[in-house]
Amino acid sequence: MSIKEQVVIITGAGRGVGRATAQLFARAGAHLVLFSRTSAHLEETAALIVQEGGHAVTIAGDVAREEDVSALFQYVREHYGRVDILINSAGIVTVRPFVAMDIATWDAVLATNLRGTFLCCREAFRLMAEQRSGVIINLSSLSGVRGVEKFPGLSAYNVSKAGVASLTEILALEGKPYNIRVCAVSPGAIETEMLRQAAPQLHAAMMPADLAAILLFLADDSGRMFSGSNLELFTNA
Questions:
Q1: Active-site residue, 80 included
Q2: pLDDT at position 106 over 70
């Protein structure tokens, strides 16, 4: 499968990895539907794509809200009739020592990172099952991988990303009869605003564009052997 002419939904497309991925997929000729909570950030991403001769549809919404996700996929169904690739890049991080963890913070992180991934996967899965094909790539993290160094204050984030990896594994199994590929990518530190918020002491060797290139490889037919995999990306600063 070539990326050209494929219908691609990217969540969290307003900044960071989502924006870099949108730009790269646009250069590859994809039909892009970009989703994020902040319209202004989405329009900035779309403007960058237009400057390079591409085009993208932007839809503002919250991945944690079922009605917003349903509206996103209803738009795609009505205007394109299919979705070929879903990239779940939306995510948040909040630093809070566990002894001071409050329910609102815990629920907010889990809602965006795990519930949001679930809602988008579910809608994509239903449409892809009808068309008997599709690719879903979920963004997990080394923070959710057992045995990798952890950082204080990230309990909610770590749990959410471990959940994303586990969801990916079972969806890859259930997707096989429908020719749906599902995989996850678990990067370490990436030079983004999220990293500066969560761990400003870290120096990231990976840039958003580096991860975007990996996502493009996985979404293309080149990555067909990675269904069910959680690709752990260790980088040296």
A1: no
A2: yes
